[in-house]
Recover the amino acids of this structure.
């Protein structure tokens, strides 16, 4: 993609619309034709260290190939008339843990939010106490809220502990604000809780609920969220499927807040997707519970 100026290209990298920038100075051709040393710049988004290394290798390969072709066309030995100046944003050392650890927080919160919550209503059915709850004057909304609140607090506590360990134990930089991280985590936790409660409502057996929760929530969060495998490297059909995986949006937010800071185009876009999914799953859970009560 061609950008009109370096500022527009930088904004694209900040918004994660581009993985890197290659720019030439306005007098680049003139310096080459006059035999002077020209300079070119390359900027790589280092949030994903693996992608950054690959892109850096591509840039170096293109540069070497261009130099060889130029030398062959001129009938001279290989010369280096261009001095590349490359910079890596957000993760200059290209440390893998700096983008793996934030993604791991999403997996941990998925386990707390979805897997544990998937057992709560199923446990009531197995023990035969759900009928007693339904016969009480407590509404189904209040029952679900009572199931949600403890696990929401547990999930937020797990998030706080995970962030503290990421910063102090693994030395992962936290460039963004804590309140943005907390808000995004709360939205994702509501999605996970909604999915867990929906599974628990539909399955009256704890074993079945646990197996379904692992398949529907944990495995996609581990494989299809971008935590381990780069989404852009997946087949096109799989890339489409990743859009229904809530952890995909949360991993993007986590990596952005930790390594790049409060980049609002990225945070708000992905937070909006999480909000829609939270409302959807919690709404379906409430309606399904009402039908069972009736």
């Amino acid at each position: 993609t061609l950008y009109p100026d370096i500022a527009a290209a930088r904004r694209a990298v900040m918004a994660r619309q581009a993985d890197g920038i290659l720019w030439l100075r306005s007098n680049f051709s003139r310096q080459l034709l006059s035999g002077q040393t020209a300079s070119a710049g390359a900027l790589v988004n280092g949030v994903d260290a693996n992608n950054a290394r690959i892109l850096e290798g591509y840039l170096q390969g293109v540069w070497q190939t261009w130099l060889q072709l130029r030398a062959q066309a001129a009938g001279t030995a290989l010369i280096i008339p261009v001095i590349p100046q490359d910079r890596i944003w957000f993760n200059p050392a290209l440390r893998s843990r700096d983008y793996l650890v934030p993604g791991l927080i999403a997996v941990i919160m998925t386990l707390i939010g979805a897997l544990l919550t998937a057992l709560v209503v199923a446990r009531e059915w197995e023990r035969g106490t759900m009928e007693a709850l339904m016969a009480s004057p407590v509404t189904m909304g209040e029952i679900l809220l009572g199931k949600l609140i403890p696990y929401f607090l547990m999930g937020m506590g797990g998030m706080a502990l995970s962030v503290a360990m990421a910063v102090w134990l693994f030395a992962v930089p936290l460039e963004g604000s804590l309140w943005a991280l907390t808000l995004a985590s709360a939205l994702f936790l509501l999605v996970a809780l909604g999915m867990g409660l929906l599974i628990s409502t539909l399955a009256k057996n704890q074993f079945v609920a646990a197996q379904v929760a692992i398949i529907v929530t944990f495995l996609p969060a581990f494989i299809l969220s971008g935590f381990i495998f780069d989404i852009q490297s997946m087949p096109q059909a799989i890339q489409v499927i990743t859009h229904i995986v809530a952890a995909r949006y949360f991993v993007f937010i986590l990596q952005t807040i930790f390594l790049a800071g409060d980049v609002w185009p990225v945070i708000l876009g992905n937070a909006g997707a999480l909000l829609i999914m939270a409302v959807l799953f919690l709404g379906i859970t409430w309606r399904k519970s009402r039908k069972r009560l009736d």
